[in-house]
Design brief:
single chain; mainly alpha; two-stranded antiparallel ribbon
């Protein structure tokens, strides 16, 4: 809605960039606090977070390169200010952070599941703040709606991200014809699903749940696996309401009718559910074995 906060001379301070910086800062502080609760070394966790932050930025840009035809067909735009200022694709950033985190945890001799659990609530808070930035910038917008909570973005948002604010700015001819007839013309104001806020507040709820779960978890890995499962479900559902350009990675969207993020959500959600069941059963088996040993010792 307000993509630019203010200017220092001719240099704009973008709202999205401020929210993104807040997201990273809060994620790091929350992770360090939870890691300290788990007796993990603070210095190594700070170092780990900074490297994961950098790798998430690189990963998000790499996946955007593959999904956005504009950058794929015109590689010189990789050096443009728009590319450098854009947020990228979240799943690319998550994959980049996980790969970097895995290798660094091995190098620092940090326990993988325990450390990942400390990271999970901070990532959810990052999702909350990041999507607030998307809302402010006007990117990642939703489909048109006549619901009372539908929002019209500003002309400034349209100029920066291309978010449609009147009917004739819709890219889909079928959508344009439908809403032109429904709203009384191609210049009628257009209200959109605030998909950024749907995801933002959903992840805020996930954040509080993960904080509770971190205190009450039954086994290491439970927190990060619940994060991945819940995020994949939320993202898969909200993608049905998204209407910004979604890309077509390896033409999978053309073949399946699902967006790139929905396809990744299916893979991530399925793998996470399998891991969660396996680790839960393993934990239950250990608990039963320990209970049997304790019972035998008590009888003796």
């Amino acid at each position: 809605m307000y993509p630019e906060l203010f200017r220092i001379g001719n240099f704009p301070i973008n709202t999205y960039g401020v929210f993104l910086a807040l997201a990273f800062l809060c994620a790091i502080l929350i992770t360090v606090k939870l890691a300290a609760r788990d007796d993990l070394p603070r210095e190594k966790i700070y170092d780990l977070c900074l490297w994961m932050l950098l790798s998430s930025l690189v990963g998000s840009k790499i996946l955007m390169l593959f999904t956005e035809p504009e950058y794929r067909d015109h590689p010189w735009q990789l050096l443009s200010l728009d590319f450098l200022r854009s947020g990228g694709v979240f799943y690319g950033g998550l994959i980049g952070a996980i790969l970097t985190g895995y290798f660094l945890m091995r190098r620092y001799k940090l326990p993988w599941w325990k450390t990942a659990d400390a990271c999970a609530p901070g990532i959810a808070m990052g999702n909350f703040l990041g999507r607030q930035g998307c809302f402010a910038a006007g990117c990642c917008w939703g489909k048109p709606t006549s619901a009372w909570w539908g929002l019209q973005f500003t002309e400034q948002g349209n100029a920066v991200t291309g978010v449609p604010i009147v009917v004739n700015q819709l890219n889909d001819p079928a959508q344009r014809a439908y809403w032109s007839q429904k709203l009384g013309g191609e210049l009628a104001p257009l209200h959109l699903h605030p998909t950024q806020l749907y995801e933002s507040f959903a992840m805020l709820a996930v954040f509080f749940f993960l904080l509770w779960l971190h205190r009450h978890r039954r086994f290491s890995g439970q927190v990060i696996l619940f994060y991945a499962l819940l995020y994949s479900i939320i993202r898969f559902a909200i993608e049905f309401l998204r209407d910004d350009p979604r890309g077509d990675l390896f033409r999978l969207t053309t073949l399946t009718g699902l967006s790139t993020s929905q396809i990744i959500s299916i893979v991530v959600g399925t793998a996470t559910l399998v891991l969660l069941i396996v680790r839960w059963r393993k934990h239950s088996g250990v608990v039963k074995a320990n209970a049997a040993i304790a019972s035998s010792t008590a009888r003796a």
